[in-house]
Design goal:
The complex is a heterodimer of chains A (240) and B (435).
Chain A: E1 4-17, E2 20-33, E3 37-41, H1 48-55, E4 63-68, E5 71-72, H2 78-88, E6 89-92, H3 104-114, H4 119-132, H5 148-160, E7 166-170, H6 178-195, E8 198-203, E9 214-219, E10 222-228
Parallel strand pairs in A: 3-8, 3-9, 6-7, 7-8
Antiparallel strand pairs in A: 1-2, 1-4, 4-5, 9-10
Helix pairs in contact in A: 3-4, 3-5, 4-5, 5-6
Chain B: H1 3-16, H2 18-56, E1 61-65, E2 81-82, H3 83-91, E3 95-110, E4 113-122, E5 134-137, E6 147-150, H4 154-157, H5 165-172, E7 184-187, E8 204-212, E9 221-225, H6 226-242, H7 250-254, E10 258-259, E11 261-266, H8 272-281, E12 285-288, H9 289-332, H10 334-342, H11 347-386, H12 398-425, H13 428-433
Parallel strand pairs in B: 4-9, 6-8
Antiparallel strand pairs in B: 1-11, 1-12, 2-10, 3-4, 3-7, 3-11, 5-8, 6-9, 7-8
Helix pairs in contact in B: 1-11, 2-9, 2-11, 2-12, 9-10, 9-11, 9-12, 11-12
The chains are: A alpha/beta (240), B alpha+beta (435).
Chain lengths: 240, 435
């Protein structure tokens, strides 16, 4: 059994809504194995997205510990978090979140720019990444000139360009049709498999969970149950 | 994020909103141009004073006088300008040359015509250093003997001594004097040519080597070598003794090796005031054109500050424009800022990006504003020249151009500071959620 790259201990996040306190994440303890694919499954408002935000350091927990790679994420300040994200984390969003005035290639290059990678190297790596998602011909297009699926491919390329150990995907296929959804999932699985990256996908889509080794059902801020998937698929072709 | 990437990204962000960037930059252009033009007028005025004063003589020459004898009543030891004190003055660091000065009143003779003039005796080799300016010919030089530089008004000043007073002026207009061809003589007998003249006084031959410039503060005197002047004075004293007619006025001149005035040439204009003070402390009175320049510049400084303040107001308004643009930009780009943070931009990256954009607006405005300033300055000068003013009234020295662009950039950075800090404080999560 390989090591746990992410450890969550008694994680709690409480929001105040007026006088009411809502526990979006209520005492969750979980471990994630290195190189594993995990699906956080739950309805809207179940707290799955909040959990993802906590793990990735976008939000501070009210209580509990988040240990990634032996580092306490909840104790980091803004600068440390930025460095931490540069080094270990890639993000894929539901709404792509590409920068509108940059080309596809430049969007993919952005994480490398923040990481101060040399001009030549980052261009090569970004181009390679675009090739991997099948968009090398669209490199100089702006996001507004790309379809939703293409934009998400660029976003995936951006998430993986740094070769991060962990990739978070928050409803990555929420805005896409079924066919494109499978294409995206195949793409992510392919990229993850190559470098043994840990992938955590937040979704409400049961079909996606077929790709994951573990399906964690979240409801009302708690882990409802954990399914271990014995029949993991690596590609949508295996579905039929 | 490297500086190159930072600037590249900042410029692209500004370029994306061309119109707004242009309008903001325009504000800075006007602000910079107004402040620079205002200051340039102040500088032009100062330089104008300076050239005006420089035409009067050298700004690095100090005139030294012996205080009036009445002053000695104040228990002050009486000081003398003699070989010893002159040597002391010349030993002061920064002093380049010293000449004692004696002045007398002689008559210059050109054939039938005469010209009565104050004559200043100096060491001939120092004449050029002391800043004497000639309109023609040359200044006195080392080894010149019985050579003079005529007063600027000499050519119109010759008259026929045989005529009675009331006719002299009219006739002097038509007298033609060729300073470099005519044969001149000099005499201490101021009644030469009239019926009162003493024929026993023999005038001496002199050669005119130059004519003083009218703008020079000493334009009204004729210059000759101190040695020659003393020789003539000595002859007059001998003559007066023979006439048994002791002249009281000559008592001071008669003391050999003592002078009533001296001129001191200083190498660096900045030392003039210090050296003046040292000489004053020795008990002498001093005067230099720097005194004059200082009081003139004091006046213009005041005006310069008022003009600068007027310009500063428009730059201040431009700064508010920059701040406004940056705040707007942050509202629009909230989501973008969030995304950048999530994919690894540090707080300092975000701050620097916004500061760079603001600085760039300031820099561009400063640069174009400087170009505009040169244009306006040119127009102002052409217009003023047409109105008959010789020297430029607006001057933009290189340092002002550099400081102007630098200041505009600084204003941009300062105006962008609070918006930039605000951008860094945005929560990444909240920023991404903004639709």
């Amino acid at each position: 059994m390989s090591e746990d790259i992410i450890k969550l201990k008694n994680l709690k996040k409480i929001y105040r809504m007026g006088d009411e306190k809502i526990a979006a994440v209520n005492n969750i303890s979980l471990n994630f194995e290195k190189g594993s694919v995990t699906c956080l499954l739950g309805k809207s408002g179940s707290g799955k997205s909040t959990l993802l935000n906590l793990i990735s350091g976008l939000e501070k927990p009210t209580k509990g510990e988040i240990i990634i790679h032996g580092l306490h994420v909840e104790r980091m300040n803004e600068t440390q978090l930025a460095k931490f994200r540069q080094k270990y984390i890639g993000f894929v969003f539901q709404s792509y979140n590409l920068l509108g005035n940059l080309t596809a290639l430049e969007n993919v290059t952005l994480p490398l720019i923040f990481k101060r990678v040399g001009v030549k190297e980052r261009k090569e790596r970004a181009m390679e990444m675009l090739k991997a998602v099948g968009l090398e011909e669209r490199a100089s297009h702006k996001p507004s000139q790309l379809s939703g699926g293409q934009q998400q491919r660029v976003s995936i390329a951006r998430a993986f360009v740094n070769n991060p150990e962990i990739v978070f995907a928050d409803e990555p296929t929420g805005n896409l049709d079924t066919k494109t959804t499978y294409q995206m999932m195949d793409l992510m699985m392919g990229l993850c498999g190559k470098n043994k990256q840990t992938l955590i996908i937040v979704t409400h889509d049961m079909e996606i969970s077929a790709y994951a080794q573990r399906i964690i059902h979240i409801s009302d801020g708690k882990v409802e149950k954990i399914d271990v998937n014995d029949n993991i698929i690596k590609h949508s072709q295996e579905l039929t | 994020m490297s500086s190159f990437d930072l600037i590249n990204m900042a410029v692209r962000n500004l370029w994306k909103r061309k119109m707004r960037t242009f309008l903001t930059v325009l504000g800075v252009i006007i602000g910079t141009a107004s402040i620079v033009v205002m200051i340039s007028v102040g500088i032009g005025m100062n330089e104008g004073y300076k050239t005006q004063i420089e035409e009067m003589g050298s700004l690095t020459v100090i005139n030294v006088n012996v205080p009036y004898s009445a002053d000695t009543s104040k228990n002050k030891e009486k000081v003398e300008l003699n070989a010893k004190t002159l040597e002391q003055i010349s030993q002061i660091t920064g002093v380049e040359a010293v000449t004692p000065v004696k002045q007398d009143y002689f008559t210059i003779i050109d054939g039938r015509y005469v010209y009565d003039t104050s004559v200043m005796g100096i060491l001939p080799e120092t004449m050029e250093q002391m800043g004497f300016k000639v309109q023609s010919g040359r200044t006195l030089q080392e080894g010149d003997s019985m050579a003079i530089v005529l007063s600027a008004y000499a050519l119109e000043g010759f008259y026929n001594p045989k005529l009675s007073w009331q006719y002299r002026w009219n006739s002097s207009q038509s007298i033609e004097i060729n300073p470099y061809e005519d044969k001149f003589q000099i005499t201490y007998d101021n009644s030469y040519g009239t019926k009162d003249m003493d024929k026993s006084i023999k005038p001496k031959k002199v050669e005119v080597v130059g004519v003083m410039n009218e703008t020079d503060q000493n334009s009204y005197v004729t210059i000759m070598s101190l040695k020659d002047l003393e020789k003539i004075v000595a002859e007059r004293e001998k003559y007066q003794k023979k006439q048994d007619n002791p002249n009281n006025n000559s008592s001071q001149n008669s003391k050999k090796g003592v002078y009533d005035r001296a001129m001191v040439k200083v190498t660096d204009m900045n030392d003039v005031e210090d050296i003046q003070k040292i000489i004053k402390d020795m008990g002498f009175e001093t005067y230099s054109l720097v005194d004059y320049l200082n009081s003139a510049q004091e006046t213009s400084k005041m005006l310069q500050m008022v003009l600068g303040a007027i310009g500063a107001i428009s730059l201040f308004v431009a700064a508010i424009g920059i701040a406004n643009t940056m705040v707007m930009s942050i509202y629009e780009r909230t989501r973008e800022i969030g995304v950048m943070k999530v994919i690894g931009a540090t707080v300092s990256d975000i701050r620097r990006l916004f500061l760079t954009e603001a600085a760039f607006i300031g820099f561009m405005g400063g640069l174009v504003g400087m170009g505009l300033s040169f244009g306006v300055s040119k127009i102002v000068n052409v217009v003023s020249a047409n109105m008959g003013r010789g020297d430029s009234i607006s001057m933009i020295p290189i340092w002002l151009a550099i400081v102007g662009v630098g200041f505009a950039t600084l204003v941009g950075v300062l105006a962008g500071f609070f918006p930039a800090v605000r951008a860094t404080k945005l929560s990444a999560l909240a920023a991404i959620k903004t639709e």
